[in-house]
Amino acid sequence: MASSNSVKDLVPLTGSDARIPRIGYGVYRSNNCKAAVLDALSVGYRHIDTAQFYRNETDVGEAIRSSGIPREDLYIVTKIQHPVGNSVEKTLESIRESVRRIDSGEGDRKGYVDLFLVHTPASGRVGREILWRALELLKEEGGTIDIGVSNYGTEHLFQMETYTSITPVCNQIEVHPFCQQKEVIDLCKSKGIVITAYAPIVRNRRSDDPVLVAIGQNHGRHPTQVMIKWSLQKGYIPLPKSDNPDRMKANMDMDGWELSEEEMTQIEQLDEGQDGAICPYPLNCA
Ligand SMILES: NC(=O)c1ccc[n+]([C@@H]2O[C@H](COP(=O)([O-])OP(=O)(O)OC[C@H]3O[C@@H](n4cnc5c(N)ncnc54)[C@H](OP(=O)(O)O)[C@@H]3O)[C@@H](O)[C@H]2O)c1
């Protein structure tokens, strides 16, 4: 079993000097994103996960500026879905705009994000290469510290070897007890690619699962907390989302308790493969 990890830990990224906070706060479908990010920062989150698709990069930018937290203490991730006009230059301009929305810089300091991801492999082989080339150029010019992918299956990762020498630092995929993604995670581990786990609490749809309820009772915890703890103990970086400050706190309250090896094994048995997935992104699309 992976060792227990504090949510305050910073995890090293292969091939990078940067380190990523052990837990992140996701803002997909955030009701009032600026206020939610400020609440999340005040309860201790330092890693925020947004995307062009969420249409709230500006809110994230406003929240981080008004939080008063030094930029270097924050870890901000965003994503692009599709290339613009099948052009690397136009795609690069689109991702520069994301950076400007999030962090326009201050004085001599140029704005940047910590991690820019290709949101989905759905643009096809040529589209994926355009997106990656634009991200590489953004990294070269300092607009992002690192680059990575999301929803990439094994074939997409193998295919990257044909068009780039830069390994993504992270693959952000749906991972939780009901969709454990063993094949792609094994490949990512072998390449030193960190897994960030989206929908880590299955949008609260499986919190009545009797195994999770029983394990939660052993620890005086809610089943959603058991799912986040499982993710941390597996060595993933979970990205729970909540608009509710009490839930935000509960989702961070992971230190000082641990799932036993037997409980981890019980949770391993909940895997339903792709049938357990809630997001429509195919990790095996062409
Ligand atoms: N890369 C991708 O393609 C992709 C896809 C999906 C998501 N993501 C990222 O991953 C993040 C998380 O995923 P997600 O938002 O889809 O799902 P999630 O984090 O598994 O679940 C969020 C849902 O659970 C509820 N919730 C949160 N904490 C709870 C608690 N302690 N007890 C009970 N219910 C709780 C929230 O409601 P309240 O807000 O009312 O608390 C919300 O409805 C996203 O925000 C996004 O940043 C990425």
Automatic annotation (TrEMBL):
The record marks 79 as: Lowers pKa of active site Tyr. It comes from the Eukaryota. Residues 32-271 form the NADP-dependent oxidoreductase domain. One of its GO terms (molecular function) is oxidoreductase activity. The lineage of its organism: Eukaryota, Fungi, Dikarya, Ascomycota, Pezizomycotina. Signal peptide: none annotated. It comes from Arthrobotrys conoides. Keywords: Oxidoreductase. This is NADP-dependent oxidoreductase domain-containing protein. The active site is at residue 54. Belongs to the aldo/keto reductase family. Substrate binds at residue 119.
